[in-house]
């Protein structure tokens, strides 16, 4: 079974089985966001295994010497087939013992992908751990939203930032990266600081990690390599003026002053230069320079030819902020691919801001409840069940009232209070005269009705006054009007 030809055949068979498994996984119903993401992760794992076996198979085909040795061992003497039948007998014995299996335990690996992981017994009361759910934080909600609160805090702590932004405006800043480089709103002094480089590095790391977890079928690594190559081309063409520190450029450009090769610093005045010669820092730097073979760097003279490994010299001012510039470019490309998720994140934050504390707690409790698993058997009738559930959840709204934050129609009194039913459309000037007199005609028709209602109201008040009975101190009973008249006359 160690024959290189048999390994070749076996590898081809495994690739074919993985391709069939990939088709089976992708053809399953994906009704929810969770099932879609689980399917994508499983498909990505299968593709990784196919790629690794293709690489192995390619290496075997490239190794012509081993293949030639194997073939020569089987065909050295055409009349002697002992070696051939010996190997054939081993293969037959193996498949007679394991007729339905693939060599090297491959069948177990394949079954792990085809198993949906939802065949729990009815007596089991525990829920299986979901490895995909463990990849995301509670704020990310299974890869639906971005969790940028830590990056938002780091952004507001940058130096020379000016005005600090609330979280929603910070999301708007990231969304603006569709049309320009991210954080172009920051001042140049802020973007050239060390804090900004650390911030943009953390933001790029998070976005790259989220994309890998939420979009496993996207080859984000290749996209980032292409973006990095595009950045290198722009940088080589000199499109880096916004990342050059003008003060450092002046110093390295040969501005008049005194250069200290030991301290690697330019001093503008002779007195300042003489004062630093006796400092401990200068003495220590001089001793270190004497023991070092590296020549001193003088911006007024020729620059040294040593390189940092990427073709640039460290003393050039445009290379000092190259890392921050590249991370900003790569982060911009990542944000452009995450625009839908950013929009969903902003909508979710706005919705949560409108909830009360009690409503937020209730939402967290509902999210923590385990969701019923959807088995492949139920997937066949999934669409019909979804339609029935949609009909059950259909809201009765005959008045066509607007929906509130909970998805239900707002109360009718609130609809009238805000004047949502009023037609505020401006009427043309030629119709205003007609509409005015039309309203007057309606008023004339309404006056008799109003008078009738007024009379009925007065009669009702009179009846209440005449029907109500009051008793005096002597026990005599009068209606309310008579009682009040006698009392005014002093007879009671």
Report the sheet-strand fraction.
under 5%
Mean pLDDT: 75
**Helical proportion?**
55-70%
Through-space gap between termini:
127 Å
| Poorly predicted ranges | 118-127, 251-256, 298-317, 373-380
Number of helices: 21
- The secondary structure category is mainly alpha
Strand order of the biggest β-sheet: 1-2
Count of β-strands: 4
Rg over CA atoms? 41 Å
The gross shape turns out to be flat
How would you characterize the largest beta sheet?
2 strands, antiparallel
* SSE succession: HHHHHHHHHHHEEHHHHHHHHHEEH
Structure notes:
It is a single chain. The chain is mostly helical. Among the domains are: 111 residues, no CATH class; 131 residues, no CATH class; 58 residues. Helices cover 58% and strands 2% of the residues. The protein contains 21 helices and 4 strands. The strands form 2 sheets. A two-stranded antiparallel ribbon has the order 1-2. A two-stranded antiparallel sheet has the order 3-4. α9 packs parallel to α14. The radius of gyration is 41 Å and the shape is flat. It starts with a helix and ends with a helix. About 9% of the residues have low confidence.
């Amino acid at each position: 079974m160690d024959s290189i030809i048999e390994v070749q055949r076996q590898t081809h068979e495994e690739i074919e089985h993985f391709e069939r498994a990939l088709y089976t996984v992708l053809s399953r119903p994906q009704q929810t966001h969770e099932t879609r993401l689980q399917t994508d992760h499983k498909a990505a794992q299968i593709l990784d295994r196919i790629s690794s076996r293709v690489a192995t198979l390619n290496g075997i085909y490239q190794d012509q010497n081993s293949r030639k040795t194997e073939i020569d061992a089987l065909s050295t003497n055409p009349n002697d087939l002992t070696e051939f039948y010996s190997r054939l007998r081993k293969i037959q014995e193996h498949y007679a013992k394991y007729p339905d299996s693939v060599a090297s335990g491959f069948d177990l690996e394949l079954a792990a992908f085809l198993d949906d992981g939802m065949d729990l017994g009815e007596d089991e009361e525990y829920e299986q751990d979901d490895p995909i759910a463990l990849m995301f934080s509670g704020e990310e909600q299974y890869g639906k939203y971005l969790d940028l609160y830590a990056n938002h805090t780091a952004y507001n702590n940058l130096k020379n930032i000016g005005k600090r932004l609330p979280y929603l405006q910070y999301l708007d800043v990231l969304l603006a990266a569709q049309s320009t480089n991210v954080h172009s709103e920051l001042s140049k002094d802020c973007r050239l600081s060390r804090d900004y480089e650390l911030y943009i590095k953390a933001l790029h790391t998070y976005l790259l990690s989220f994309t890998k977890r939420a979009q496993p079928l996207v080859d984000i690594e290749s996209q980032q390599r292409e973006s990095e190559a595009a950045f290198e081309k722009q940088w080589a063409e000199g499109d880096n003026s916004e990342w050059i520190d003008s003060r450092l450029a002046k110093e390295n450009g040969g501005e008049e002053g005194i250069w200290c090769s030991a301290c690697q610093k330019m001093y503008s005045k002779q007195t300042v230069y003489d004062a630093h010669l006796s400092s401990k820092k200068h003495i220590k730097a001089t001793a270190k320079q004497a023991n070092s073979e590296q020549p001193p760097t003088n911006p007024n003279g020729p620059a040294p030819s040593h390189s940092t490994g990427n073709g640039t010299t460290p003393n050039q001012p445009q290379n000092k902020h190259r890392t921050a510039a590249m991370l900003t470019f790569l982060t911009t490309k990542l944000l452009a691919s995450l625009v839908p998720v950013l929009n969903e994140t902003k909508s979710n934050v706005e919705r949560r801001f409108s909830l009360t504390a009690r409503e937020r707690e209730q939402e967290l409790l509902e999210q923590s409840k385990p969701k019923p698993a959807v088995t492949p058997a139920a997937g066949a009738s999934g669409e019909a069940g979804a339609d029935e559930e949609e009909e059950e959840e259909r809201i009765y709204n005959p008045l066509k009232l607007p929906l509130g934050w909970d998805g239900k129609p707002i109360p009718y009194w609130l609809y009238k209070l805000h004047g949502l039913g009023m037609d505020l459309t401006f009427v043309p000037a030629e119709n205003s005269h007609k509409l005015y007199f039309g309203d007057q005609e309606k008023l004339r028709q309404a006056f008799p009705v109003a008078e009738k209602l007024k009379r009925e109201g007065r009669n009702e008040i009179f009846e209440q006054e005449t029907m109500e009975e009051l008793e005096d101190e002597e026990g005599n009973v009068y209606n309310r009007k008579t009682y009040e008249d006698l009392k005014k006359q002093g007879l009671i």
